[in-house]
Amino acid sequence: MDKKTEVKKLDWGWMAQHMPGVVTLVQERKAQLGSAHVNACWKHGVLRCEPGWFYAREGSVSVGVPFFGAEMDDLLRQFGSWDAARMAPILVLKALDAGGSHGKD
Known about the structure:
With about 100 residues, the protein is an alpha+beta fold.
C-alpha cells in the first residue's frame, strides 16, 4: 500500500454521516490521549484488524475488532446490558499504558 492510499484510508470523513456520536467520542479521545495514539489504534484495530486496539459502534454500524475480556466487561457494566448499548455510540481504544500504541509500527 502506498502512502497516498494509506492517508485516504485514515480519512474518517465517512464516519460523520454514519456514526456522528462516535466521531464526537473520537475527537474527545484525540484531545485526551493525543491524535498519534488514536491514529495508531485505528491503524492496528481497523486497517490491520488486530484485536484490542480500536472498536466503535453506533446503531447497526461498527468498525474495528471487538474487545474481549475486561475492557468489554467494564463497558457492558456501564450500560447495564447489550440492549442498552445497542444504539448508544461506543468507542473502545487500547489504553495508553497498555504498550505498543506509540512509536514504531
